[in-house]
């Protein structure tokens, strides 16, 4: 019994190793991210429920867009490589082209599509009833206090006076916006 299970696992691993394509790996990662990231976001007990919902939907939509783009661009790149390359390089060249296609998808196509598609989609799914009466501000909250600068005179060995700012109430972490990635 144990040998039969071990043989099946070995044969499955061998088949995956021989037939492995970069597209499959990236699609599998995107599928896991599309499931786990929204789940972990919703499990965050410290975050506001509206923020959790918005972030989870946005993360899920990003991966939902990414999976078909990875597949399409990877396969398209492999087909183009097979047409351009000589027959003796078809197998290796197609896999290399597929890898390049997946990289182009991750670096250029998916961010562009997400920027264009997610905002209108999120507007349909997630909207605040009071948002029509509120004005939207981007960037820093203009009503918060800026760090206070205090000028102090420092004299060292009767030489030139150096004026240095002393920063109070300064944090190195932004205190606004959505929490992303658990940071």
Describe the model.
This protein is mainly alpha-helical and 183 residues long. It has helices at 2-18, 22-43, 49-84, 90-125, and strands spanning 148-154, 162-168. It has a two-stranded antiparallel ribbon. The radius of gyration is 26 Å and the shape is flat.
Q: How would you briefly describe this protein structure?
A:
The protein has a domain at 2-128. The chain has helices spanning 2-18, 22-43, 49-84, 90-125; strands spanning 148-154, 162-168.
Shape: flat
Rg computed from alpha carbons, rounded to a whole number of angstroms: 26 Å
Element-level helix/strand string: HHHHEE
Give a short account of the largest sheet: 2 strands, antiparallel
Number of helices: 4
Strand order of the largest sheet: 1-2
Tell me how many strands there are: 2
Notable traits:
183 residues, mainly alpha, two-stranded antiparallel ribbon, 4 helices, 2 strands, flat
Question: How is this fold's topology laid out?
Answer:
Elements: H1 2-18, H2 22-43, H3 49-84, H4 90-125, E1 148-154, E2 162-168
